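Our preliminary data section would be incomplete without showing what the modeling component actually yields. Below, a chain of 122 amino acids is followed by its predicted structure, encoded as tokens that our downstream tools consume directly.
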Amino acid sequence: MVDLILPPDYKNETQVDGAQNHKKQNNDNEINDGGIQKNQKRKDQKDEKKDPFFIPVYSDIINTVEELNKIPREQLLTIFSKTEIDALIKRAGNEKYIRQYYHRAKKKYQKFEEIFGIKINI
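Predicted structure:
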């Protein structure tokens, strides 16, 4: 491949025209009363709360029942079974739990951390 060396005063007119047209469009949107206002979102911008793939950021390490309950149940159910989740919640709340379910869940901590970036330390 050969690199072209252009003089410093060379201007690519298509790039300049495109940039000017883009600026005109932005100014039209700000000036037009029926158009988009500066603080409004466009139709193509996604709202994080409505986005089904949006995962909120949590603290890196989950130690308490409150922190565990902040994680959406769907995320927990992708890795853990219902009985394992119940055992985790009971263990975190210092209640009686079934040891077998807790140890099954404990084996899956690493997989949950790899997928969601949240470390469970219960």
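The radius of gyration is 26 Å. The chain has six helices and two strands. Preliminary results of this kind motivate Aim 1 of the renewal.
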